Amino acid sequence: MENWVESMGGPLVVVSVSGLRQWSGCTEDGVLVGGGTVVDDYDRACAVEELAGVIGGNVLVLGDEPATTRYLPGRRAFVRWLGAGSEEELVAAAEALLDDPRTPWEECGVWETDGAAVLMDSADAGAGLGTPYPDGMGMPEQAGVDLPAGRWRVGAHQSAGGDVRVGVVRLLAW
Fold it and tell me: Among the four residues 62, 93, 95, 163, which has the most C-beta atoms within 10 Å?
């Protein structure tokens, strides 16, 4: 599987490359992980209860559950692995949803980016993406999201049943 990103349990986020240094992820002072009183970026991402949402106007949160996700650049959509026997089945189901004008898309806000972005775990600090975890557990997972600068209307949908269950978050030029 190429370009798939898995989280450590929290939501995934998409952050503009230019804003990575500002994304702090979870911190020792944060509420959820550190037990502190300061609401950090991870806390803000976890507060998104919908299928997707936008925080601060410039961070796209792929909410609801920590599903392994990949970006389909030709479709400007994120595919979320909820249940499938193969990557091919999952991507085909996502493309069918994207092609079907009857798909009921949940409106999830407007995301603004100044260009290329990174799909990553919301717990990771953007500045640390190129640095191995201190516990020797490898590198933070990430995938590039090639987009032109702009404002994007975010829509999300999850398939309800069957052998293949997929979540899709699509971006439409605003």
Answer: 62
